[in-house]
Design brief:
Layout (H helix, E strand, L loop, with lengths): L1 H27 L18 H7 L3 H11 L4 E10 L8 E14 L2 H14 L2 E7 L7 E7 L4 H7 L10 H11 L4 E7 L3 E8 L4 H11 L1 H6 L4 H11 L1 E5 L2
Antiparallel strand pairs: 1-2, 2-4, 3-4, 5-6, 6-7
Length: about 240
C-alpha cells in the first residue's frame, strides 16, 4: 500500500515540474505575443520636390510603373563653404538630386531602362542592396557617364587608401580589357555589367581580386569560383570591409 502511495506522489511531482517548465501557458490557452519589427515608412516625394527636381515626368512615371512603387526623394551630400565661420571650413548639406523607388526586380528594371535613360541624360542604378531581405533601392540622377554614380555615392575604401578618384582611375584602366558600365554603388561597394566581356576572364578576375580582396573571400577564396560568378552574372562587383 505504501508503495502505491509513493507512486502516486511521484506522479504528482512529475506533473508539477512539467507545468513549471512551460506547459502552464498551454493550459490557460494563452500564447506568447510574436515579436513585431516595425520598419520606417518611406517618405514619398512631394509635388513640391518633383517640381524642384525638374525631371521629366515621363522618366519618373516609367520607374514608378516598373517598380510598382511611388518615387521617394534622393539626397546626396555636398560640401559648401560656410560664410559664418573664418577659415577654410566646409559644411556638409543634403541636396535633392534625384529620386528612388524600392523594388525586388532591380536588375531587370536597370537593364531595361538604363540605355534609353542615358541617351536622355539620366542614370539609373542600384543605390542600396538588401540581398532579398527587403526590396532593393533603385535611384535615378542626371548624368551621361556611369562613373558619375560613384561621385554621387562617394564610393571609397579608406582602409585600403582608395578614394573615389582612385577607384574610377582603376576602373578606366580595366576598360582596356573589357567594356562595362556601372549599375550600382554605395559608400563602399560598386557593381558593373559587361557590355563586352574580357577575352580572358580569369586574368580579369585576378585583377578584380587584387584590387578588392574581399570579393575573392566571398567567392570561397578561389579564382575559379570568382570567374564562375562573373560569367554567370555578366559583370563584376567590388567591395571593401
Amino acid at each position: 500500500m505504501a508503495g502505491r502511495h509513493l507512486v502516486i506522489i511521484a506522479l504528482v511531482l512529475i506533473t508539477a515540474v512539467s507545468c513549471s517548465n512551460g506547459d502552464k501557458p498551454l493550459a490557460t490557452g494563452k500564447k506568447a505575443a510574436p515579436t513585431v519589427i516595425l520598419r520606417p515608412k518611406p517618405k514619398v516625394m512631394t509635388a513640391e520636390q518633383r517640381a524642384e527636381l525638374g525631371f521629366s515626368p515621363d522618366i519618373i512615371a516609367q520607374v514608378e510603373a516598373a517598380g510598382n512603387a511611388q518615387a521617394e526623394p534622393f539626397f546626396d551630400e555636398v560640401m559648401i563653404r560656410s560664410s559664418n565661420l573664418k577659415g577654410d571650413v566646409m559644411i556638409a548639406t543634403a541636396r535633392l538630386s534625384g529620386f528612388s523607388v524600392r523594388s525586388a526586380n532591380a536588375d531587370r528594371i536597370i537593364m531595361d531602362l538604363a540605355p534609353s535613360f542615358r541617351k536622355k541624360g539620366y542614370l539609373i542604378f542600384r543605390s542600396q542592396q538588401n540581398f532579398g531581405n527587403v526590396p532593393d533601392v533603385i535611384t535615378v540622377v542626371r548624368g551621361n557617364n556611369s562613373y558619375d554614380i560613384l561621385l554621387i555615392q562617394r564610393t571609397e575604401a579608406p582602409r585600403h587608401h582608395l578614394d573615389t578618384k582612385k577607384i574610377i582611375k582603376w576602373l578606366k584602366e580595366q576598360q582596356k580589357l573589357a567594356s562595362f558600365v556601372i549599375t550600382g554603388a554605395g559608400s563602399d561597394w560598386l557593381e558593373a555589367r559587361f557590355i563586352k566581356p574580357p577575352k580572358n576572364m580569369k586574368a580579369f578576375a585576378r585583377k578584380v581580386a587584387a584590387f578588392s580582396p574581399d570579393v575573392l573571400a566571398e567567392n570561397k577564396g578561389t579564382l575559379e569560383k570568382l570567374v564562375d560568378t562573373m560569367e554567370r552574372t555578366g559583370g563584376f562587383s567590388l567591395w571593401w570591409d
